[in-house]
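Revision sheet: C-alpha cells.
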Amino acid sequence: MRIETYFRVLNDLIAARPFVHFSNLTFEKRSSHIGFIKGEVRFSDGSILHMREYVDTEGDVERLMYVYHYQDGNGNLVFRYDNSGHHRGLSTYPHHKHVGNRGEVQPAQPASLGKILQEIGKRLSANLL
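Predicted:
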C-alpha cells in the first residue's frame, strides 16, 4: 500500500467515529511506503488522544514506532500504548500498555489507531450508562 493510501485510511477511521469531536493530524511522507504521523484526537467528553506513528506500508503495515497516549479531560493518563524497548521482561516486548497515573505497565499486543479508537469508544459508551 502506498503511504498516501494509509494516510487516507487513518483519516477515514477517525471520521467514522461519532464520538470524535476534533482531530489534528500531520502526515509526513518519507518515501512511497514510509511515513510519520503525529497529532491529537479530541473526544466528546473532553478526553484526548495524542498519537505518533512511524510506519512502513510496503507489504503488511508495520508500525516501526508508535505511541497512543490517551488522557481524560483533566489531563490524567488513562492509558498509553507504545513499543519503545524499555520493558524487556514483558512477554509482549517491546509492545506494552501503561495504565493510570501511576503508569502500571502491562503486556499488550501490537496497537493500531483502529484498536485504540475501539477501546476509547467502549470506555465512552460505558461512561454514558
